[in-house]
From TrEMBL:
The keyword Transmembrane applies. It comes from Mucilaginibacter terrigena. Keywords: Membrane, Transmembrane, Transmembrane helix. The chain crosses the membrane at residues 23-48, 60-82, 103-129, 135-159, 171-193, 213-231, 282-299, 311-334, 355-376, 382-404, 424-444, 450-468. This is Uncharacterized protein. InterPro entries: DUF5687.
Length: 495
């Protein structure tokens, strides 16, 4: 039956209208993955040399044992963002004499067909063969190899379990990402504990106590069966659907939005769209992760105070406005599947735009509040963030929505965000020019004549002016939309 599933998926691929485009994308992805594989292989072949070059007077095997746990924590974080859920259109099989265990088993096993499961073997395998095998024998080498594979399997199914649960409740995904981020920051940023010591505690003891390999093997097996039974319990589409309905409140049940009437309903629908679908949800999650962006510049001792303030313009714009940029540029593409319905509905386009502005204002305000702890690096940093917050609400929001009127490519909300270029075209390239150049074109001339605060003041005034004249820009955007609405709709019909 497994071979039948593969056969059906191959036929569905070759009979699709977009077969040519899909093949081209897969060729590009194949070349990219081949390049990544060669890079990872080189890391694996020279891992012993890299570890020997790090702080001396420590045995290379001790260093190796101390890095494995850190790798798998980072691996889990990357899987949550990049690894795709294995899919199979189960509807045609549910009424046939196909055992549910077979369908679920197929989904569970195909989840192992991920390059993430190959990387640990390629990275750690050569070291195990070159160093651990000669030093401690074949048994220890096999124990290490089995432990690495088992932890990879555990991460694989843990990430998939979290992502499947997040399809019902988007907060689960966010909580998992925050917990992993805090675990890594607790060691490398705040130095509260040592992940290296915890890693060596297990893998160092694995050398003298090979039976400890049972722990990762049991964890991998348990996580596999947890996924298996979760899929089996939710294979009934009506049950999964009912959970989604109960997990999200209607707009009338959100007290904060009730007072805004029809615009509040539109914002509530937008929030539901974001939380229920992978691609738009990733735009929100990316914005939360980008809150750490400032640490790249502000913690670097090589940068002077003036340089940090200049970088604060760049970092502040993205930290407080990345959601506006990532989400706003696809303003209509998110509704591509029902855009024709929007055109003939009673929804006023001015209300549609006001709802977008309202959503961007709320998310950007929360993002700015999250950047306030950067006051640790100086009040000037937070002041710059506030100026860029005003700039994003006024100028950048208007620019992004103007270019959104020129994006005619649809987006399939059911697809993930990793390596997904649906909806991306020349419009995004053109959009990057004013977004990146305009703020520096205003700020840098004042900085070069030693009046950086005047440059910030000019940007803040422009941001406030655009916010106060928002209704004027909404009317202009509405007029521009009505000129292009049929071209946009035609583009969205091309699947």
């Amino acid at each position: 039956m497994i071979s039948t599933f593969f056969d059906h998926e191959l036929k569905a691929f070759w009979r699709s209208k977009n077969t040519g485009k899909s093949i081209a994308v897969k060729v590009v992805m194949g070349l990219l993955l081949l390049y990544l594989f060669v890079c990872v292989l080189l890391i694996g072949l020279f891992l012993d040399k890299v570890l020997m070059a790090t702080p001396p007077n420590v045995d290379v095997i001790v260093k190796f044992c101390g890095t494995i746990l850190i790798y798998f924590l980072a691996d889990l974080l990357m899987r949550l963002q990049l690894q795709e859920l294995p899919t199979l259109k189960v509807q045609p099989y549910l009424h046939l004499s196909v055992k549910r265990n077979t369908v679920v088993g197929y989904l569970a096993l195909t989840a192992m067909l991920s390059f993430f499961n190959l990387w640990p073997i390629v990275i750690f395998g050569p070291f195990i063969i070159k160093v651990i095998l000669p030093a401690h024998g074949a048994v220890t080498a096999l124990v290490f190899l089995f432990s690495v594979i088992a932890l990879s399997v555990f991460n694989n199914y843990l990430a998939l379990y979290i992502k499947r649960k997040a399809n019902i409740n988007g907060w689960i995904f966010l909580i998992a990402g925050v917990v992993l981020g805090l675990l890594l920051c607790g060691d490398f940023v705040w130095h509260l504990y040592s992940l290296r010591s915890a890693s060596y505690f297990f893998f160092g003891n694995l050398i003298g106590k090979p039976y400890l390999v049972l722990i990762p093997l049991i964890l991998a097996g348990a996580m596999f069966y947890l996924n298996f039974y979760y899929l089996k319990d939710n294979l009934y589409l009506e049950e999964l659907g009912s959970k989604k309905v109960s997990a999200y409140k209607s707009s009338s049940e959100i007290p904060l939005l009730n007072r805004y009437g029809h615009i509040g309903d539109l914002v509530a629908n937008e929030i539901k769209l974001i939380l229920r679908n992978k691609r738009p949800r990733s735009a929100l999650i990316m914005g939360l992760f980008l809150m750490l962006y400032g640490l790249i510049f502000y913690t670097n001792p090589q940068y002077s105070v003036g340089m940090k303030n200049a970088f604060a313009v760049f970092a502040g714009m993205f930290m407080t406005g990345i959601f506006i940029i990532n989400y706003g540029q696809f303003m209509y593409s998110w509704q591509a599947s029902h855009f024709d319905g929007i055109l003939v509905s009673k929804v006023k386009f001015t209300d549609f735009l006001r709802a977008k502005f309202f959503l961007f204002t709320v998310v950007s305000t929360v993002a700015f509040l999250l950047t306030i702890p950067y006051i640790y690096f100086g009040w000037q940093i937070v002041l710059t963030h506030f100026v860029m917050y005003l700039w994003n609400l006024g100028v950048n929001t208007t620019i992004v929505l103007y270019f959104a009127n020129r994006n005619y490519k649809r987006i399939d909300l059911s697809k993930g965000a990793s390596f997904n270029w649906e909806g991306v075209g020349s419009t995004q390239l053109l959009l990057s020019i004013p977004l990146l150049i305009l703020p520096f074109a205003i700020y840098l001339p004042f900085k070069f004549v030693n009046y950086p605060n005047v440059g910030l003041a000019v940007m803040a005034i422009l941001g406030v002016v655009f916010v106060l004249t928002r209704e004027f820009w909404i009317k202009k955007l509405e007029e521009d939309f009505y000129k292009k609405r049929y071209k946009i709709a035609e583009g969205f019909r091309n699947k």
